[in-house]
Amino acid sequence: xxxxxEQLDEILYNxxxxxxxxxxxxxIFSRLGKQYSSGExxxxxxxxxxxxxLVVSGSLKIVKDIGTEDEKAIALLTDGEMFGEMSYxxxxxxxxxxxxxxxxxxxxLDREQFDMIFQLHPKWTTKIIQSLSNRIYLAYLDLxxxxxxxx
Length: 151
Prior knowledge:
This protein is α+β, with helices and mostly antiparallel strands.
């Protein structure tokens, strides 16, 4: 088994699928993986998309205002982390760009694929909610810290 297959198995296990995935589902997941080279754009700020992403291996930077003098890296994503869920659920333009910081493999799920997984593994809902909750909390902390600087 390839190293990325083992990483994918571990990530899927940790995403509340546990040992519930059958071989056919694992094969489907493995086909959803996409390779990105270091520096390659994965998601562009402002684009509208129905895709949700899961980092299988490597690291990716979340960047605001990419390509401008105001460009700012705001987070680094690594194995097992999800991104794109906010735009996925609210159908609004992407709030930031995502660029591969290293050669990376990313699982790319469109709405149909996500809905299939969701129906087969409803406990994944908890992981999605935790991810969204964490993003909201981090945004709150940033806002609070910014307010403290002002006063």
